Amino acid sequence: MDIAWLAPVLPAAAFFFNVLIARQLGRFKHGVAAAAAIGSIVGAFAVFLVVFLDAQAHLGGPAHAGGIKLAAPSLQEEAELPRRLLFDHIPWFSVGRWDFYTTLSVDWVSIMMLGVVGFLASLIQIYSIGYMRGDNRFWWFFTVMSLFCAAMLGLVLAYDFLLMYMCWELVGLCSFLLIGFWYQERDNAEAAKKAFITTRLGDVGFFIGLAILFLQTNTFRMDEIFEAIDAGRIDPTLVTVAGILVFMGAIGKSGQFPLHVWLPDAMAGPTPVSALVHSATMVAAGVYLIGRAYPLFVASPVTMAVIATIGTITAIFAATIALTQRDIKKVLAYSTVSQLGYMVMALGLGAYTAGLFHLFTHAFFKALLFLGAGSVIHSMEPVLHGTGKSPNDVFWMGGLRRRMPITFLTFVVGSLSLAGIFPLSGFWSKDEILVGALDAGAWVPFAVGLVTAFLTAFYMFRAIYLAFFGAERWRLAVAGSGPVTVAHAAGGGVIALEGPDRDTTARHGAATATVDTQDVPAHLEAGDHGGQGADHHAAPHESPWVMTVPLLIISVPAAIAGWLNIPGVFTAFGDAIYYGEVHHEGLNLAVAAAGLLAGVLGIAVATIMYWKPLLSPVAVGASFPRLYRLLYNKYYFDEMYQWVIDHVVLGISGLAAVFDRKVINEGVVDRPAMLTSRLGYWLRFLQTGRTYNYAFAFVVGILVAGVVLAGFRPDFLQASLW
Amino acid sequence: MNSRGDAGVGYLSGTVLAPFISALIIMVIPRRWPWAIRLVATAGSGLTLVLSLLIFVGYDWQRAGFQFQELYEWIPELGIRVRLGVDGISVPMVLLTGLVIFTGSIVSFKIADRPKEYYALLLILVAGVFGVFVSLDLFFLFFAYEIAVLPMYLLIAVWGSTRKDYAAMKLTLMLVAGSVLVWVGLLAVYVQSGASGAGISSFDIEALASPQVQRLFSPSFQNIFFPIFFIGFGVLAAMWPFHTWSPDGHVAAPTAVSMLHAGVLMKLGAYGCIRVAVFLLPEGARFWAPVFLVCGTVAAVYGAFSALAQRDFKFVIGYSSVSHMGYVIVGISTLSLVGMSGAVLQMFAHGIMTALFFALVGAIYDQAHTREIGIFGGLARTMPWFVGFFAIAGLASLGLPGLANFLAELLIFLGTFQTYPIAGVLCVVAVAVTATYILRLVGRSFFGPFNARWGGLHDMLPNEWIAAGILVVTLIIVGLYPAPFMNMINASSLPIIEKVGGVR
Q1: Residue among B78, B342, B435 minimizing CB distance to A200
Q2: For an interface test with A, which of B322, B344, B416, B436 has the most A Cβ atoms less than 10 Å from its Cβ?
Q3: Any CB–CB contact under 8 A between B432 and chain A?
Q4: Residue A626 resides in a domain
Q5: Would you call B287 an interface residue with chain A, using a CB distance cutoff of 8 Å?
Q6: Which residue, A171, A202, A248, A468, could crosslink A151 as a Cys pair with Cβ 3.0–4.6 Å?
Q7: Which residues make Cβ contacts (< 8 Å) with residue A73, sequence separation at least 6?
Q8: Do A120 and A130 lie in a common domain?
Q9: Are residues A16 and A60 in the same domain?
């Protein structure tokens, strides 16, 4: 147990090693940095395994859960086991009566996250060897990844709010550096900035909340704060206020409405980053924070209602945006936002186990989906290179399933799991959330949950059909850059697969038709092979094994992680991670059926729209042009915020700057300075140059000074003159 | 029998004399030997750095109080003596000054225009700064204070850039106006301490703070003279609304002068506010604290927003200094132990950070001859070290955990929430604005497409690299292991807070 501190320390050591030493190694720096980063995170995963086995014996929890127990204490011992082991409580510094500590703890929640982070970070970094190959800042990628892992593992183990906040900011920094990894593109740099500042807004609330709690309890240690709340030593209103403020941190970090805007833009980073930082771990930190500080939130029904409401809104809000996105990573990003909303909603409704269980399963299948998308992008990139088309755009993909079978299969597994199809992971965790919502009597969240499940299944399979099925539309793009092609004739190479306008539909009828057929039209084949030279634009192909093997490995937990908590059968997860008392949702067949039906229905609708063209997506889009535009433009949130920044924030700052220059500087400083010099000009005329004038003034001055000094301070006169 | 803290009597006068004697030596070195001038300057400032490190290590925080004391008679008839001594508030300042002058003189190697006069003035200035931080006698403190302020005029007017005459004149006049106020206050305190024959007519800080003298400072006396002191010193700390010399001054000053100025000189003002105003006139402090708290809060928010609108690197950093020194004023004005300790740590952390900033801006300005943010782009590609160091300074500025500034701000905010929650909220909001202008600057200049126009810029030179490295390492060490600082700051803030009757 007490080696858990090594988990964050190993990657931290790798970070410093890479910055200070690896960088100096010239052309070897890339290999060395990657080796150090991967070695350290695999080491951290090994630490997790040791801690996990150790915890079996020393922590209360899943003792009666069979199966995964390796070192079982007897039942009597079990009852006396603590739920949490503080293993590190080091004084850091003191001010007055306040001592600041760094406190770490191990309990089942942190062990769970330790495992998720260690496992995914290891595989994703291995995958990155392939994905980032050839990048001239390869070493920097692994260096920042190590710092991220260190901060994230520290966040997971932190048991006082100060340490947690520090790690929370550090993962934010890493997110900034990784989103802006390809900083030469202006958009990426902007996205990085946006991510940092948006989350910082949430952190303003987080910090104020922490300050309130600290001043009430004189400690940052979580257990002491929670104890004070339980004992009613803090004014309930303050608990509510502090709870909502702390939750603001989670809103920012986990991309909850209305601070969700940064997360889709964060996809500007390399895809492994999206998989690790922006889907599985860092963005889940907000949910983790809610889980960690649950007593703070549970203590106030108002806070819980706020959390549930924000989660519910986010879940459906983001899912609707995902329906129309063309960028495969943005689809996944909005899906992440939506699923995080699901978790937040569950926690807000009191379904503690369900919320964290969904966090657990989601981490695997969403990381898998991102890595799959990365694999697709990695192979599209050289194909579309030079055509001006984004390799992320599903409209320019198509037919990839035969060219990238492993990626295709694992992507489908992840999507089915996310869509909540029995018996994959997502089914179990989503079902538990729905049952939890029903138990809480919360009909609206329950209904929203079902609708979101339907939408989720739909947009995932829309993406699958567009990317992996149908015609190989990338040929159109490639041909479109050639001299004479059909795409030119169809209007500048824009394909209307769907859209708000009937007009474009009509104009691009020919191109749309290609979607509906499995075979690539002959003239496109000719456009590729004739004239241009086929070597110029290679066809997409499966990614190297260093990428596909991690895909295959992660697809296993993506499929079966949900089996860790099957109601009535095997409930190890719920036995270990619960709030208050162990609470197993019974298997509610009606809810399970409804959830499954929603998922199947979503897949079915996607199928008839994007695979078997019974229902033209173009026609659907054109029937609701306003709605389509609204969704495609993400409810215009970015535009709204941009307006606020341009007119309010920059307005205030411009005012402050002008006020400073004009009023304070010119009015208060320069003006008196000018008056003084003018005064000096007039006073010149007192300088007559006549000796008797000066002598007179001199004598009067002496007399006045002498009288004043003698009158008021005779002792002073004595002291200084004699 | 030398216990810790008494060891090495003579260190304090050493910190004053080392730069002063170096300046004298430089004055007699022939002009045609610039290398000798640099050598003496580096050796002299290196010696002061070593001395200040020895003082830092040797200070015994458990005994608190003034240590390393030295006493020389000066004008005994008037009770004026040179009494030196440091406590836990001045020791970090001494260390800060040592670090900044050493790094400042090594980045000044490239000064080609009259290096002799430049270094001589710089070192005299630093001798004055040390004099203020180690003095326990108000007269000598003021004397040193003036020595620290006046060379600034020549340094900016001769070696500066961008409206240098205007900026130098404005800076000097405003600072002198501030010191006139201080002088008025000093005389008042001196005279009052000898009132009605019972007193001692002394400039000695400890004597003035003793209960029998404090008795003579009636509440109305304190209420009149506290703001005179606080504003007088506050001008040098760029306290809003007396800050306007600072952005112009920073912009105009040459690199090392900016470093010293923002890094150290502004701290002289804040130090005076604590050591003289609050310490000697606690009643007045209690009365006026809310007013100055408002000034500090306004500075924090207003400085941050103003920085957001700037287009020149140095103006951004200049306004950011106004904002960050606003936190210091806020921390002092909370009159709480945590706030005061945070303010002192912030003085140290901000000094290091802003010196780093100015060193870096100087490094790029010397090559590009412009400091306009929008004009650069993608510099990260060709100047990775420069951008890395700059990013660390920026992250320190926006309060990233792991760097010293985070802890300082944390303590200030906790102290503020404890006493004036609304000001606390505003300060935290200002931090978010800080993040915005820092990232905007970094994003515009260092990220984005590489601007081929700047292809000829080279990365950091070895001397700049060493200077920046020293400063960055300091920020990280203090950020991760603040205990040595906090212990001494805390121990010496406590008596002040007890005297004021503030929140402990």
Answers
A1: B435
A2: B436
A3: yes
A4: yes
A5: no
A6: A171
A7: A57, A63, A81
A8: yes
A9: yes
A339 near A365, Cβ under 8 Å?
no
| A251 in Cβ contact with A310 (< 8 Å) | yes
pLDDT at B152: 86
What is the 8-class DSSP label of residue B85? E
Whole-number Å distance between alpha carbons of A74 and A66: 12
Residues A367 and A263 in one domain: yes
Name the β-bridge partners of B135. Answer: B84
Coil vs helix vs strand at B334: coil
The answer to whether A189 contacts B443, with C-beta atoms less than 8 Å apart, is yes
Residues of A with Cβ-Cβ distance to B431 under 8 angstroms: 200, 204
- From the CB of residue B423, how many other CB atoms can be counted at a distance below 10 Å? 23
Residues B365-383 have a mean pLDDT of 81
Name, in order, each residue with C-beta under 8 angstroms of A708's C-beta and a sequence gap of 6 or more. Answer: none
Assess if residue A516 is contained within a domain: no
What torsion, rounded to 10 degrees, do the Cα atoms B350, B351, B353, B359 define?
Answer: 150
List pLDDT tens digits, range A428-486: 899 889 988 988 888 899 999 999 999 999 999 989 988 888 777 778 777 665 433 33
Residue A499 domain flag: no
Amino acid at A57: A
Total structural domains within chain A? 3
Is A561 in the same domain as A674? no
Write the DSSP assignment of B48-72 as a string of letters: HHHHHHHHHHH--TTT-S-EEEEEE
A657 and A565 together in one domain: no
Interface test with B, best of A90, A94, A95 (most B CBs within 10 A): A95
Range of the domain at A639: 634-687
**Alpha helix stretches (DSSP H) within A24-160:** 29-58, 75-80, 108-131, 138-157
Under 8 Å CB-to-CB from B471, ≥6 apart: which residues?
A: B99, B103, B352, B353, B355, B356, B359
CA angle at A113 for the pair A111 and A116, rounded to the nearest 5°? 110
Could you read off the pLDDT of A569-581 as tens digits, one per residue?
777 787 788 887 7
Per-residue model confidence as pLDDT tens digits over A143-170: 999 999 999 999 999 988 999 999 999 9
